[in-house]
Amino acid sequence: ITGASCSGKTTLARLLVQRLARTVSVEHVEQDNHRRRSSHNRLPDGRKTWEGPQFTDFAKLHASLLDARSCCACVVVDGYLLLDCLPETRQLFDHILWVECSKELVATRRQARKNGRGDFPTQCYRDAREYVEAAVWPAHEAYVSRVEGMSACERLPAGEGEDQRLQRALRLFDGWLGERSHAAAPSGGGGVRARGARQYIECPYKHKEAAKALGARWDAGQKRWYAPSDLGPAQREALLAAAR
């Protein structure tokens, strides 16, 4: 799922994952979780920018996608520059959804971030709207020109609501889900992912040593701990204690 910053990509991805998880094992991989620093962080006028493909570690994104594919029937990936990924990553995509959005709506949503303070380099711009005009939208237009015609996309119009977009996206999976009904997630299920013969479920605790002692696995791409679902009563109590 790709499109401009603040176009609704991640919201759609999360809704899609929730719905698909009723039927199959599924994981969500986000480009935003694979950010990196870059020395190329200035516009021609010298002001800072956080946009552009130089701020994403696409090799790490590819590794996260392969990792997710190894243990899930379906992977949903989203990113504002997703088609700038490595060619070998792009070849893994079965469907590409392009979420369309106007510059005005992007600016409104960027300004609403961080409790209304806006999401922009504060030392260089008056507000998020100025940042969108100078950096975000030009980066999006450059992205469009780079990837246009590269891959067939299902375009989701800007005027559609979240439910309309979700239903349109789900239609792409109708035949696919029927063929793979045997890959349904275990009961209790959304968020369950396979690791060889064991099952792992997402868990909220952050205590590193307790997590490792329980055989949990840290997913660097998703920045989450996963614990085996076959924990015994004592182990589950230790898990809860670590969470506290």
Task: Give a description of the structure.
There is one protein chain. By secondary structure, the protein is α/β, with parallel strands linked by helices. The protein has helices at residues 9-20, 58-69, 87-90, 103-116, 128-147, 162-171, 174-179, 208-213, 233-243, and strands at residues 2-3, 26-30, 74-78, 97-99, 154-156, 192-195, 198-203, 217-219, 224-228. A four-stranded antiparallel β-sheet has the order 6-7-9-8, with no helix packed on it. The longest helix is centred in the middle third of the chain and has 20 residues, at 128-147. The chain is globular, with a radius of gyration of 20 Å.
In short:
With 244 residues, this protein is of the alpha/beta class. The protein has helices spanning 9-20, 58-69, 87-90, 103-116, 128-147, 162-171, 174-179, 208-213, 233-243; strands spanning 2-3, 26-30, 74-78, 97-99, 154-156, 192-195, 198-203, 217-219, 224-228.
Short key terms for the protein model shown above:
244 residues, globular, P-loop_NTPase, Rossmann fold, 9 strands, four-stranded antiparallel sheet, alpha/beta, three-stranded parallel sheet, 9 helices, 2 domains, DUF5710 domain-containing protein, DUF5710
